[in-house]
Structures are given as C-alpha cells and as structure tokens.
Specification:
There is one protein chain. It is built from 9 helices and no strands. It has helices at 2-20, 23-30, 34-40, 44-52, 67-82, 85-100, 102-130, 139-156, 163-184. It starts with a helix and ends in an 11-residue tail after the last helix.
C-alpha cells in the first residue's frame, strides 16, 4: 500500500503539479481510502516530501570506518534523492509550507530531522570512539554543516551539484566538525570551554 500511495503521488505530481494535487486524487489513483493516507502521512506536504525526497525511516547506517567516509556516504545518499528533478522542483513549495505551518514544521522536525540527526549522532559517536574527534559535536550543527550546505546549494543557490562538490562538502563538514570538537573539548581542569 505504501508503494502504491507514493507511486500515485509521483505520477500525479508530474500530471497536475504540487498546487493542484489533492489527497483525494492520490487515494483514488492508489486505490486506497483517504484515511489510509492520513494514517501514514500527516499532510499532503509530508506525503509529497516522502514521495520525492526522503523516506520516513532512514535505512540502517553501516559505517565506513572514518568520519570523512561516513559523511561522504551519507551526503551521497541524500544527494541522490535531493537532486532529483522532482525534488528540486518541489522543494521551494514544501519549504514555504514549513515556514507558515507550525504543526507541519513540528512534525517535520520530530520525524525527518530527528531521524537525520540520529544518523549524525551515530557517526559522531563512532568518530569519537575511533579518536577522530576530540569530543562530541552537536548533531544539529553537524547536520547544518553537511546537509544544510547541500540543501542550500540545490534549492537556494541553484548550483549544479556533482560528485566532486559532494566530496568537497563531506571534507569541509569533517573539518568543521573536527574544529568544533577541538573548540569545545574540556579545559585543563575538565570543565567545558565557554562558547
């Protein structure tokens, strides 16, 4: 059922566009009741986001053995979805809805962003355990450094993001996270340095 809902959403987006798309149309095309859609997706915007850019649950994370390698694998996976033509076309409308709908924004933070930041927390924990980071880094800051930069390049600056740029983004995020860990590690007496 999930597949048929998302497939119907993608087909209808191509046919009628985001603004004209309705949950009723998707339900009819997918052969399901509207209630079935709302049990899975809190709104039209969320349904479209899942269909075009982001699964509701991220796949299990398998580390590469290095901070830079983990960040590169993560950003490549996100780039594959975020750079798709439908995602680039729809992102401005979805971002606009998040800005004016507090309930949608909260649900987005509690589902998609929480899952992404959990992936960053895992990468950070592994990097600290390997000694690549002097201490923990806020997963939200790591998220901003890597995926925030990718989203900005794709949706605001409208840059042609290729694998060379994705590789540079991962390297820059790794360097930034290393610098933050060094900046915020404890002082000589074990207390945290002031920010």
């Amino acid at each position: 059922m999930d597949h048929s809902i998302l497939q119907a959403t993608r087909e209808l987006l191509d046919e009628v566009g985001y603004r004209a798309l309705t949950v009723d149309q998707v339900a009819a095309r997918a052969g399901v009741g509207k209630a079935a859609i709302y049990r899975r997706h809190g709104s039209k915007a969320e349904m479209v986001f899942v269909a075009t850019m982001h699964e509701q649950q991220l796949p299990p994370w398998a580390g590469t053995g290095s901070l830079r390698g983990d960040l590169l694998a993560l950003v490549r996976a996100f780039h594959a979805r975020m750079a798709a033509p439908a995602a680039r076309r729809l992102a401005p409308a979805l971002i606009g809805e998040l800005a004016v709908n507090p309930e949608l924004n909260a649900r987005f933070r509690d589902t998609f962003l929480a899952a992404e930041q959990a992936a960053f927390a895992d990468i950070i924990d592994q990097a600290v355990a390997r000694g690549e980071l002097a201490g923990p880094v806020d997963p939200a800051m790591a998220h901003l450094l890597l995926l925030g930069s990718l989203a900005s390049a794709l949706y605001i600056l409208d840059l042609p993001v290729d694998d060379a740029m994705v590789t540079d983004l991962a390297a820059a995020a790794a360097a930034g996270m290393t610098a933050l860990a060094d900046l915020h590690r404890g002082g000589p007496d074990g207390s945290a340095r002031p920010r």
